[in-house]
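Sequence and structure are kept together here, with a separate record for every protein. An example record follows, reproduced without changes.
>
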Amino acid sequence: MKHLLLLTFVTLSLLSVAAQTDTAGSASKPAIKLQEINYGDGKVPCQGYIAYDPAIKTPRPAILILPEWWGVNEYPRQRAVMLARLGYVAMVVDLYGRGKVVTTPGDAAEASENFYKDPSKAKSRVSAALARLKTFPGVDTKNIGLIGYCFGGAMALDLARMGEDFKGVVSFHGGLSGVEATRGKVKSKILVCQGGSDKFVTPADIKAFRKNMDTTGAIYIFKTYEGAQHAFTNPNATETGKKFNLPIAYNEKADKQSWEEMKKFFADVFADKKSGSEKSQGTGGTKAGGK
């Protein structure tokens, strides 16, 4: 009987997700609508997801989400709902196209390889998603941010260094190497949330990234979370790491701290304020954080 009840519960939960609606609304947790959103990048059809609070009738800032290298799976959708609960419109970008989701590191590496080799592909995908987002009801088109996780974080930073103009860009445990910015090129304010024990990002990567930011006058904040490994924000990371023998793990403390950092960052940039730890004009970001 217990197994039957558990099976029934899981089935109902999956049906609830499939309905694309968060119905757990209350006085402190509003009901959030999560739905597919279709658009295209040239001849490539894209299937993203958008989350918002239908009770909010006035235009509000919006945030694009670039997923990990697994594609548009459940995790970035959960983050979209979390952002919607903060009062934003949040859209998960389909970087691979056709709603592609991969489940093994080999397939993920193959799917993401072309974007690492040619970041203009990510720029094209994000531009298409941004154009669609701007047509969505309730979006304040002058206040749009971009966040990314792992592979998505690396792409978000590449876009910022390529001169894409977002109010703010946040990378969670993203790769730091890639496009090099030139002086005056970076228009977006940047927040980097980096694990102190991330084996995919070397000290040399960090040094080179910070030097590039400092010498080009970029406005950025760099937060390091002691002991946090790669993918520290994803609750499934530890299990996935064990399954595929990858040096990744969830870190609840770093997850919560980085989310709070992001909340403050976007509150400031959307209000056009400077964070107290923000540095600019080649003076560097904040290295200590989350310790």
The radius of gyration is 19 Å.
